[in-house]
Queue: 2 jobs
Job 1
Amino acid sequence: MKDRPVILYVDDEETNLLLFRMAFENGREVLLANSPNEGLIKLTENRERITAVISDMHMPKMNGVQFVNEARKELNTIPYFILSGYFYDDEIDLALKEKKILKFFTKPFDKAEIEGYLNETNS
Amino acid sequence: MRNERSFYLFFVITACISTLFFGGYYLNAGIPELYIPIFSAFALFAIYGVLCFLRFVSLLWLFRISITTTLAAIFHQIYFTGGIQSHALVGLVTPTLLAFFYKPVSDRHIFMVVSVACLISMFPLSNTGYARNLLPSDSMSVHALMCAIFIFAMISIYTLLFRRALIVKNKELGKSMNELKKTTQKLVQSEKMASLGVLSAGVAHEINNPLNFIQNGVEALSKKIREDHKDKEKELEPLFKIVKEGINRATKIVKSLSHFSRKVPGMNEQCNIKDIIENCLLILRNKIKHKVKVITDFSSPDQKVKGNEGRLHQAVMNIIVNAEQAIKSRGTIKISTIRKGDFLDIIIEDDGEGIPKENISKINDPFFTTKAPGEGTGLGLFITYSIIHEHNGRIDVISSVGLGTTFTISLPI
């Protein structure tokens, strides 16, 4: 049997991290990082296992798209998603067009929608 | 400026011809005191003409020295012909000096008065001149007429030249004034929209995160209860439903604010207005079919405008929904499209209850609503207004209470 898929979620708010894990830990291993830097460290440590990354957009020091750009240097074969409380903007638009991120989700998140995308890409 | 220059050249040519003519006349009469200065004036005018042509001296100064030369030549003639003794001299001196120093800012008619005054004073002046017997008496009236026409022409040209310059300047000023007004209005509007965008994006972020806590916290909670306290599920279910409804409403309002954030996805789609209207009607069909009869008239052959299809859907939808809500029992909504020049007009007419006069000016304000709490946010028409604004279009509303409302959206093709 295949291993459980491992996803990484990056958000600077602890509550969001907790909720995200509760929502998606069924059938998955959810790694959490509360800053882009920690996210990059976890990504390096688990690069063999991680199957998808979801990141918040507005975080201190580095925003979601910048984080994805950095992360793609480390691991370019998996899908990246943004989950943000902000609106769709030019930066997101560009990242979507350049296929740096696969999809832009908004908070409050729709569990079924994200689940659908994860299932599609993680099998 | 090009026109002013050609006017000046015309003036100089007239002056040259006149001086040549007068000079020849006095030469023929054998009066060197007169023909020498007049021929010198001719030479000076010729030089001015060349200067004007070469653009060495500014037009204003060229004009001033030309007037001075002309006046010197005329007074020289008057002095030698004896006209200086005439009482009519004042009639010539005062207006010509006035014409020289007066700045034609407000009253252009003054020049006409001036030139007529000069004209009239010429006859007695010339007549006095003949009293000294310097000129042959049989050419008396010809000489007087020549002098008069010369002065009249000079001052008329002066008037025309400056009047023209004034009109041109005024036009330019008016034009830039209008442009300034338009730009200011645009700036104020876009500034408003921009600050609204920044504000709504900030508010949305701050509200979306706690909404996320609530939504997914409640989700987890209800799951836990379903698993561990099956007996309480029935009792608690309505409460969860209420919480979820609250979250949904809040989420919807926050989402609708996203339309004010200036960053909108592509505005370059070819949007078929007919399709957009039909889609909106399809979505609303179930809601309206028992109450409203919809008549559509897409007479314009060209139904395409450039913009964002999703946003235009939303704009049209909001107006149709409003029309439907204005109809209390039964009624008709008429939707038509007409091409007017470079614009496509979408006309949405209902025979509902209409908008009271005092509310017409408020319908585009954010959060203005006459609906019960929870039924309308008051953002619908405001969103429509900003979407149409983004597309460089405009919305007009005509409404009378009891008869209905007509919305006209004009979009550039």
Note: The mean pLDDT of chain B is 78.
Job 2
Amino acid sequence: MALPQKKYYRQRAHSNPIADHCFDYPAHPDEYNWSNLYPALHGNSEVEFLDVGCGYGGLLVTLSPMYPKQLMLGLEIRVKVSDYVNDRIQALRVQHPEMYQNIAVLRTNAMKYLPNFFHKGQLQKMFFLYPDPHFKKAKHKWRIINKWLLSEYAYILAEQGIVYTITDVKDLHEWMVVHFEEHPLFERLSKGELESDPIIEKLYESTEEGQKVTRNNGDKYVAVFRRISDKWKD
Amino acid sequence: MTCLSASQNNLAVARGLHVDYYNFTKHSYLDVPEKLNTHDDHICDITISSDSSYLALITTVSKQLIIYNLPQLTEYKSFILPRSASKIRFSPNNINVLVADKSGDVLIYDFSKENSGTKLLGHLSLLLDVLQTHDMKYIISCDRDEKIRVSCYPNTYNIQTYCLGHKEFVNHIEILPHNDKYITSSSGDGNVKFWDYVNGKLCYNINACLDVDNNELCELFSKRMDEEGVEVLNLPIVHYAVTKFNKDSSLIAVTIHSFNKILIYTLQTIDNQFKHQKEEMIPVQKFPAAIMFIKCSLILYDDIDCIVSILSVVNSNERITFQMDKQIKMFEDKIVNFNVKLSLDAIKILYKRKFDNVQEYQERKKQRIEKVVQ
């Protein structure tokens, strides 16, 4: 089984995340049958890593052998792109038996339906790699990071869970940093803490988007945050 | 849209930009200032505070939030909302008004202050109801995307949980009157649910549309919605009202779209075990525009003839029935030109149209692959 060719799956980079698309989602996380996505896995394992807007799936494919015990899911809203990732994973599973059983892709709208798929505190890691910058001010509400969505991400993340962000757009980087730092349930990781994390170096080159930025000699801005407990006292 | 509110000794009905306020001896009228030169503007929600000190209302097009003193009916504060709202509710201590709006935001207005109005939280879906728990610790909001969200208060950035399980829009939420550990919700899926809202756990379900004794109604509604491109399996619940009956049970009133009977249930909780019983189906001539309870009296409003009916509970031989107590003609001394919209139009927009762009893509892909194979 050959890997899929990207030329058949190209699609424009932007999607309106507010519109009603036709998505299948469970009414409650308990109702979702994960064995369709991870057929080789048995038992009670749950998705722990979530790549929001996974694009062509480069990060999933890179992390899969590094964390073979963890289930990872990529979310992608674009029809063709999510289908490409699915075909890629299916082909990899055939080419490398016993491998790539822990990664899968789902087409859904992460801004609306995360609580339908994940329980409170279920995720250990979330990734936002090269998110759509939505440059125009009027489209800022479509950005995947904002004050209100951070509360939803905090809800599905376990305390001490980690959020990774990378972008080549400085303005978006600053926007993301401000919003995470202002949110009481997140704190930024220091440079020292980043050095010991083997995932950080993978953020730069594992995705197709990251490789494109390198080809164009663009800058890359990384920011990583930790989900902390609520310090609120009555 | 709610056009009726009442407390122990007064009731208010809205029509267009006008309110008839009745204290059970005389009617007083209130005219909301016409801010825009449009005939579409009207009051879309009205509510009286639990201590009967204030009346609050919101308007659709001009987006006004106005709070009046009761019983004088003098304007106390007015605000312009940032976006069109669907529901308002007083906080349990009656010093704030919570606003649920159509863009998905919950805002709080401290009406003792001039420049109030703070966003507390945001869904990415049209909101239909909001409430604050009696202990003030949680704000609960529900939306068109089947969700009920429980946020901590005042630290609303912290989502306590979601109550998930409805299959269509959630149009009403209430604290269970006889036990405030629970909330209850109604939905376009025809079900009433009961939740442990701190843990987001579904405790009990009543499939109310199973009690509609006329199968044609659902077929007719499905057919009409099918023309709109929406697949509907159940008749939606339109109105929902609850009240405490005794220390172990609450009375529940439900109206179901196009069904001219009001379903009355009792819901009992003993040692956290839920049980319900259908008590009565009250036939009505016209589908009511609003229903509510004051103590154990059921209030119905017919917005075509502008009549409020008050039915009181009769509890005999362990069976609960209702009988007509009195009828009050509203807007009798005041002519209000306002076209009442059909409830079908209001509920139609809460359903999501299906459009499937995946199937078309999959077919093209199949053709491409077959071509290569040939």
Note: The mean pLDDT of chain A is 92.
